[in-house]
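Progress narrative, work stream C.
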Amino acid sequence: MHMEPLNDPDTGTSKFKSVLEVLFVSTSLGLTSFGGPIAHLGYFHNEYVKRRNWLDERSYTDLVALCQFLPGPASSQVGIGIGVMRAGVFGGIAAWIGFTLPSVLVLIFFALLARGFDMGSAGWIHGLKIVAVAIVAHAVWGMGKKLITDRNRATIALAATTITLLWQTSLSQVLIIFLAAIIGFFLYKNKTVDQLPEIHVPIKRSFAVICLIIFFGLLLLLPLLREVSSSHWIAMFDSFYRSGSLVFGGGHVVLPLLEREVVSGGWISSEDFLTGYGATQAVPGPLFTFAAYIGAVMNGWLGAAVATVAIFLPAFLLVMGALPFWTSLRRSPKIQGALHGINAAVVGILLSALYHPIWTSSILAPEDFVLACILFVMLAYWNSPSWLVVLSGVLGGVLISYL
């Protein structure tokens, strides 16, 4: 299949425009993507697949499956991967900056100007939770129609939902995806390979290998440097880098890792830590931006910058290192069989997340359910932009609070 080039006669100008396009779209998502990592995948699906057609349904779900395997913030990794496929390495950087920077800035201001501010149970926050219900329901509905096409995959999805809900640990999702890959491998290994759309990943394999070497090198060397050096900045970078490298199962899992590093280590108080984590739930973007708040409490703007870069750097290196190999591996019949199983499991995990914690913490009364239905119809049938759905949810939450 013919790949659309990013460069015609004027290569530099065309690439620059593509990077700016990625930055613009990812920033709009960074300003409106409330609801946590699972909801972010719904926002990405609606914007990148349904609205802009930057990649097809299968390629998106395969990318989600890859990022579920990698440690780190899966939604941020998916965004970086899409940016890379659209505009190269700088596109990946632009996608990360756009999606991350809005919440980073807000959380820094929380840390510096409003420490201890109680978000409470304001109506607009409740409205944002209901927005997350609609977003995730829309993602489950759309992905399920495309990916759950036979009883085997439906069974895998059901099993993934059941296990995720009844065995709620940080390892459950990783184990489910691993088992689904094995089951899919054996069920579909002899299935005819689908003709997949060409995916343009403008990264050389040599560059990918360098990224993987840097990832493992920093993971091994930073603790050693910390031991032989008295530098507070090296210790800080090491703590946040290790936290970002060892998280499986979503952004919430980073909480105990960071608590052990910064509270038990005496860098910030438990009260400041919990206040920042509460604030992080009320802002859009990835939950890993909690690191910006902690860094700002510790060392102001510079501390926030160091903490943010350190905790996201592993995700960036892993995506860059994996993408060039993923594009060829996904064409293998056996790998495609494993991906069939993984994609079905991802739908099941999304469905379980729709129920808990998203539904159980958001739909508390009949009027909540009504608002969720309205927002779902806006997404599924009116094709409303994400910002309008978010605004409608906020206004609806405020209205409900007065009922």
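Work stream C, second folded protein:
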Amino acid sequence: MAKLEAQPARKPFDNTMVVPRKIIHIDMDAFFASVEQRDHPQYRGKPLVVGGRPDQRGVVAAASYEARAYGIHSALPSRLAQQRCPQLIFVNPRFEVYRAVSQQIRAIFDRYTDLVEPLSLDEAYLDVTLNKPGIASAMAIARAIKQAIRAETQLTASAGVSYNKFFAKLASGLDKPDGLYLIAPEQGQAVVEALPIAKFYGVGAATAQKLQALGIHKGADLKQWSEADLVQHFGKTGSYYYRVARAEDERPVNPNRSRKSIGAEQSFAEDLAALDAMDEALATLAREVATRMDKHQRYGHTLTLKVKYADYQQITRSQTVIERLRNAATLYSLAGDLLRSHLDPTRKVRLLGLTVSNLTEPLSKPLYNQLQLELPPFF
């Protein structure tokens, strides 16, 4: 796509330019699956998924583009994936390898800016308004990053470039795989008005149905609603919907982004019917979550129990306590109470999960903030 020059606005009553930020969203293409195809030439060009095998009651963690052509996607039960593509290759995940590659990619980002906000192993936001090489064009930086990733990891990434995080993430998905797409400031309002509501970042399937039931099918419909009405229906998220409907998203790229929850879950090879077996699984999960909290020095006040039944229907139930949840015994006791209060004893269980949220701040916290400076507006 041709580069479009952004036209800066001026602040009222002075001659200071108001310069759009330059945000890049990098999203690796089918990351886990692509690493496996890179490392195993016999898998290249073939439908492949990373995840549990059908005979292990697993689910798909990642799918190659060849597999996606059969309608296979992450979180799909492996049994269904195999039905859709009988020749599908199943590969067990190698998270230590994926983490190592992710660190390689992060090192590339760090050559250009310290303002990097990882979202997961395979995607991140970068603020390159100010950047280390002093390159004026964010498109040029995104292109250089993509080239470096390909040269150093033999993998491809898609990049979205825009003036805020909402549009940068949207843009990175518009030209996959190996894409590079720009949404310039003057394009933002038209893009968001035409955008189907289900495509809005942060709008899941249930929320999309709720919005559509209110007659909100596109961004143009959303823009007709007042902030007060949206807050009434959606809580504080309504304010976010109000702003993005006007192509506004002031969220900064936060290199110190802290996790909001710590959890673990387990799928079972055979559905559990006995409460004793579920208690044993909860004890294991409680130990795992407590270990992860200790590792990150983060503790919480809210415990959420997730129960997925054999028919794939699931429930979540939470309880918030005054004291900090920080040891396995407390987690296990609270989880057991939740399970006994809400479990349907007539149904078998295929998965249990525990998540601690409402977290405390980490013990050590960086002592610097992002500086906001104004620079010439060249994309």
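The chain has three domains: 18-111+123-182, 189-244, 261-359. No further action is required on this item.
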